[in-house]
Amino acid sequence: MSTEKTLVTLDASHGAGRAGHALPPCALVILGGAGDLSRRKLLPALYNLMLDSGLPEQFAVQAFSLEELNDESYRELAREGVQQFSRRPPDEENWAKFARMLHYFRGNLGRGQDYAAMAQRLSQLEAQFGTGGNRLFYFGIPPQFIEAAASGLGQAALVRPARPDGPFTRVVVEKPIGHDLASARAINDQLARYFDESQLFRIDHYLGKESVENLLVLRFANSFFEPLWSTRFIDHVQITVAEEEGVGTRAPYYEKAGALCDMVQSHLLQVLCLIAMEPPRSTEADAVRDAKLDVVRTLRPLSPEEVSRWVVRGQYGEGLVRGEKAKAYREEAGVDPESTTETFVALKCFVENWRWAGVPFYLRTGKRMAKRASEIGIYFNAVPRILFNSSPRPPLEPNVLLIRIQPEEGLSLRIISKVPGQQLRLNPVMVDFQYASASPEAYETLLRDVIAGDQTLFMRRDTVEASWRFVEQIVETWRDNPTDPASYAAGSWGPIEAALMIAADGRAWRTL
Predict the structure, then answer these.
(1) Annotated catalytic residue: which of 103, 205, 236, 267?
(2) pLDDT digits over 451-465, tens only?
(3) Which of 67, 78, 223, 476 is the most exposed place for a label (fewest CB within 10 A)?
């Protein structure tokens, strides 16, 4: 059957945001502020926030990094990053305004006296910009430096205790939070020695994407969805995060992590939580995070036998991506020529509660796939084989709600409609909802939430560790029964074993 499309546009420029109140003055200290994350993501996000009046009137940035830079050369580095990676290029007037906020301090993350010297410089900036002593520290650094950074800040008296009145201290920590449950606990213990949990913002940029954030609104602000959102009406759920690029420069990290720990433990399980969670008691951060934690805790533990049947690991070989030859993972720089690290993983899991009993959730993610696309598919039960769905006609396609996360954010709903004409012919129709204007980048949303003190979209310690607990049972099974990952061609949709896994249930992966 061919599929027709009906397009409806949604204006992303209207509507009150979650953090719609006035933002407090503050200074942002970026540890590793001259690094790749800062240049590609943080500085462009801050620039766009300024353009959208999403920064406080009194705001300053203090970068702390080892590179030989000063204020002027750091601003040049920042402008290059904004020019290359921002959704809006800099213009002279706005750039001059933004550049005045940017300052640089050269220091070593492992040297305590550098934090003390940086504290003096920060005090001068706080007085100059009138930030009132409110401080944000962004750990744009590898996990092995977290302990040294937290200790350095603490010893330099840069961390104020958490309290409802007086200046605040907030700390943003990038994923990965560890590489297994034990290391995640160790990092969380390190952070807990210096910061209260209310001060910690564990960031997962996927949760800042407009369509992911819209999941709560879609479910709980529309009366017709919630009654259908259960095992009575939903056949299964698919979550796909496909990446077109290969491992790139991340080989040293990726060789240790692999697709399961890099993507499933964080991005995919967090999205699953938003789909499967019960209505939270309020929109307060901890109420939402409590509801998400309940989902992770109700994921069915996978036995070794279930891991062998329901989890597929793959590794990309040579292939064609956009018509150009792509090398195999084992040929990438920094990768062991005999590596067994998975670059693709697909799995089936179950949320064992009354709402979702018996409904499978199929998750897949991989590098060097056919295209860059992330999507959630809610597949509703098929209609009975009577009336319009009876033999000898082929069975009608099920109704599907598609939530597109990237590259084009929006919603699609597949319904069955009559083809105009005298004969009774049926055809699927896609009602497509797209944003009429560009939505903010994920880091823009998340940085603004940090400034506002809203932890809703950030991971709490107990959820991080519960996610690792679920993933670790898969890792342990692989460790106890080592096998090479299934091979798939770069530019494809993954190994045939993933298709066979879902086909065993009479279902198929959606082609994005």
Answers:
(1) 267
(2) 999 999 999 999 999
(3) 223
